[in-house]
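Re: Re: ligand-bound prediction request (bumping)

Still looking for help on this. To restate: I need the protein modeled with pyridoxal-5'-phosphate bound, output as structure tokens. Inputs repeated here so nobody has to scroll up.
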Amino acid sequence: MQYQKSQLLHARASQVIPGGVNSATRRLARPVAWEWAEGATIRDADGNAYLDNHAAFGPIVLGHNHPGVNRAVAEALDGVDMVGVGITEHEIRLAEKVVEHVPSAEMALTFSSGSEATYMAVRLARGVTGRSKLLKFQGTFHGWHDYLLLNVITPAEKLGRKDPGCAGQLAEAVDHTIVVPFNDLEAVEQSIRDNPDQIAAIFLEAIPHNIGCVLPRQDFVEGLRRLCDAHGIVLVFDEVITGFRHGLGGYQEKLGVTPDVTTMAKAIANGYPCAVIAGRRDLMMQFTTAPGGKVFVGGTYNGHPVGSAAALATIAALEDGTVHERLFRLGDRVRDGLQEIADRLGHRMTVAGYGSVFTPYFMDGPVERYDDLLRNDGEKDVAFRSAMVERGIFMLPMALKRNHVSAAHTENDIDRTLDAAETVLKGMPR
Ligand SMILES: Cc1ncc(COP(=O)(O)O)c(C=O)c1O
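Reply:
Sorry for the wait, this slipped through. Here it is.
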């Protein structure tokens, strides 16, 4: 493979964009610039084509440049671009669809990014409870704002302590967020006892996909619901990844547990910027968009016609269930296939995942919480992914990161992934 054009573009980008990329997780050991994408294929500036198992961190659920979604966006632009006051029918229809499909959604507000939605969930919870503390779990990510950016991929030596995401975060914000091991209801109960009437919200990544795939135990999620009810705490499910990708009703529908507030983004609009906060009517009516609301919400681009039209077209494509049926079938095939190959070749691997998501961890199971993932062999993990990329199968070359199948993937694409994995694993030390 040739990489010169990517390297030149990266060098040019680095002159005017810090590090040459617009988001920290886009920086790769070998820089890459992209020029084309369609269906399940992405092509870089040097003309190298890859099967895309990364899906841009999750938005691409139907496949790249989906004609129906692109058409809906183009049609929307024939109407109103932006006026900035009032409402458009697109925005109404989108909120109606979210309310129709997502169990916890009685009302919805639309933004452009997941971080805006989770930030608004923080402010809403604090505004309605009058309390200041938040509780999150080790290994979850909820966006870039100060309040929840801590303890995502924490090194072993910092486990059990606060692990803020970056310089510049307000110490008070970090202090006000309690971090608890995932799937550990007793630790949540203890935190509530230690902070009586102080916790405004519990934030749960419905499945912690920012560390691959760690499934929540049913009794854990039911316990969270019970504790939140008993102690007046707002239960927030962050379904920015799981929403619409794992089902029209998100992962909450599978769990049969209804949070008070849900945040969604990514797969809702197949790659266009759109995010939603939805929840109980009495809570949502506390936003200042409603008369008498006390929790300010604003945003020039909220409900933008491009994102709203893309979301409506994406949801329409998901509604008859055939896309999810296909995603789950292909997901099962790739997970089972990888596990079989690794077992046969004597590699210590646990392939985790759900639906269209798969993550091969280089370790033995089980995986129930973040601490378990400290057993992952990070070097092997990255070496495997990098070698897959060399063979035209794009997987983010970073440890613990999830892969996604899209509806544009074919059975042949799964075979290609498995064939490449077999070749790579054969050449790797056990
Ligand atoms: C679970 C979760 N919540 C929130 C966010 C933030 O979304 P965005 O990057 O659109 O701001 C992300 C992003 O990866 C996420 O994975």
